[in-house]
Amino acid sequence: MSNSSSITQFLLLPFTDTRELQLLHFWLFLGIYLAALLGNGLIITTIAWDQHLHTPMYFFLLNLALLDLGSISTIVPKSMANSLWDCWAISYLGCAAQLFLFVFLITAEYSMLTVMSYDRYVAICKPLHYGTLLGSRACVHMAAAAWATGFLTALLHTANTFSLPLCKGNVLGQFFCEIPQILKLSCSHSYLREIGIMVISASLAFICFVFIAVSYVQILRAVLRIPSEQGRHKAFSTCLPHLAVISLFVSTSFFAYLKPPSISFLSLNLLVSVLYSLIPPTLNPLIYSMRNKEVKDALRKLITGGISKIIKCLSSTL
Hints:
The protein is mainly α. About 75% of the residues lie in helices and about 0% in strands. The protein is built from 11 helices and 2 strands.
């Protein structure tokens, strides 16, 4: 038995005790991480480089890519290092920093997805007022509000979680620092305050979910009233990537935190954590680029332009 004042580090849960499988986990996570870096990096570079993509929709998409890049970078490099060196310890301050950054970025991402649903609602249901309702200043304010929401939520949860007395050891049943796993180490009844804060956060998340759902109901009604089939197809093509990203993010997150205790065991918990923390940041760029002609065209121009510059530089040096 120990308390939080004597804890200097936590022990994370390894995926396996077999050395060969640990190295396999390292290479698998490395591949996922490189794919996420490449995809989100290309999205960020393409939107920043192409003037035609300097619109509210792509401004929010750039912010989403930044959040995806940050969230996966918060947990994957540490997990890869643990598997490579077979050392699953993380310092007390390192665990607090990891929890803060992950909650900050995940909450900000959910808020950004809510803002993006409003962007799609205005673009399709109120196209004549799009420039007024989503001017450059309004877009910056909404994006800043999403980032600020994530920061304040993470600050509140991190400060409250790590102020709890911990008297049940230092072993976490997860491959990264997560609030529910730290609460399991707290003393009896001392975690009720954090559970209350989590209930409030969950209520706000539910309100955002209702807002997204209502927005898409209105969008669907407006799209079905479009007379031409080509117009309906174009409207659907701009909404489907965002809807797919929301569905992926919400379904994996909700299952991770709302699954019944009867089906909660270590291997399933690890699998679900991988799904909601690694898969969305990796697949989001692919979802947007596959269904978005403007992004694909801009990305093609960026790549061909970069290749031509490299060829010119090589030819000039030779």
